[in-house]
Write a structure and sequence with these properties.
By secondary structure, this protein is of the alpha/beta class. It contains ten helices and 13 strands. It has two domains: 117 residues, Rossmann fold, CATH 3.40.50; 125 residues, Hypothetical Protein Tm841, Chain: A,domain 3. The longest helix is centred in the middle third of the chain and has 16 residues.
Length: 285
């Protein structure tokens, strides 16, 4: 088998379904969850189940950080070596949410023997993941660097990320609240419907009860889709699998995506959204 011309990598916040990640050979660099004196690698030292269980009961709240430039240098070298190439495309969490892109860019400047292209996904979770998948599919098909970058870009232009959180407490505490700031101080039963727009979290609506908020989320997705078919969709959850599986069937029936995935919200993102978060990510084609 010929070596790929381009290695495609991402970070742990994409939280790709394991079978998809394995099939496409997408290497992942973990971000960090900082809990007291502990530094935990996202998805390596702590998985979502253990993370959310601890988050619900621990009085000390975690924070997060990006990998260092030095870690990225080692990561890029390994990824290139594994694919037998000198060209790497990294699709990473939005620069509006994390310093990960900045660290990756710094590492790029330290690697004169490799060609590294850093893609700011302007997203996270499967909004980022779908970009990495498209890029990896293009690379696996023998695509050039330009074709791999174009594949990611085409998804970035089209992807939508909508989600409902149980509370704004975690976004506020982590400094990622963005345009949802205006919902602070509303009644406890109000469930905010949020989106990723321009690489940052923005507020859409505040809705009474989670059930109504999820229904409205699907209505918004349907309105935005219009008559254009949805190529891929994902239902994402933070320690809410049962609700997520029910939501998946609603997404399948209402939005009729060509493919549909279920993905957990990684511990790093869960630090800021909190448990109980549910969302839908999709792009048209």
């Amino acid at each position: 088998m010929n070596a790929q011309r381009v290695a495609v990598v991402t970070d742990s916040t994409a939280y790709l379904p394991p079978d998809v990640q394995a099939r496409l050979g997408i290497a992942t660099i973990p971000l960090n969850v900082l809990w007291g004196q502990e530094v935990l690698k996202d998805g390596v030292d702590i998985d979502p189940s253990a993370f959310y269980q601890r988050l619900r009961s621990n009085k000390v709240m975690p924070t997060t950080s990006q990998p260092s430039a030095g870690e990225f240098v080692d990561f890029f070298r390994r990824a290139a070596e594994e694919k037998g190439t000198d060209t790497v495309v990294g699709v990473f969490i939005s620069s509006g949410l994390s310093g990960t892109v900045a660290s990756a860019e710094m590492a790029k400047g330290m690697l004169s023997d490799l060609r590294v292209e850093v893609v700011d996904s302007r997203s996270t979770s499967m909004g980022q993941g779908f970009q990495a998948i498209a890029a990896a599919e293009a690379a696996q098909a023998g695509g050039s660097l330009e074709e791999v970058l174009e594949a990611a870009q085409q998804v970035r232009y089209r992807v939508q990320v909508l989600f409902v959180v149980d509370t704004l407490e975690f976004l506020h505490r982590g400094g990622r609240i963005g345009g949802a700031q205006r919902f602070l101080g509303t009644a406890l039963r109000i469930k905010p419907l949020l989106e990723l727009e321009g690489g940052k979290i923005e507020a859409l609506e505040q809705i009474r009860t989670k059930k109504k908020a999820l229904a409205r989320m699907l209505e918004v997705a349907l309105e935005r889709r219009g008559d254009t078919p949805i190529h891929r969709a994902a239902v994402i959850h933070a320690d809410a699998l049962e609700e997520c599986l029910a939501l998946k069937e609603e997404v399948r029936a209402m939005l009729e995506p060509g493919e549909i995935y279920v993905s957990e919200v990684s511990p790093v993102i869960g630090t800021h959204t909190g448990p109980g978060t549910l969302g839908v990510v999709y792009y048209t084609w």
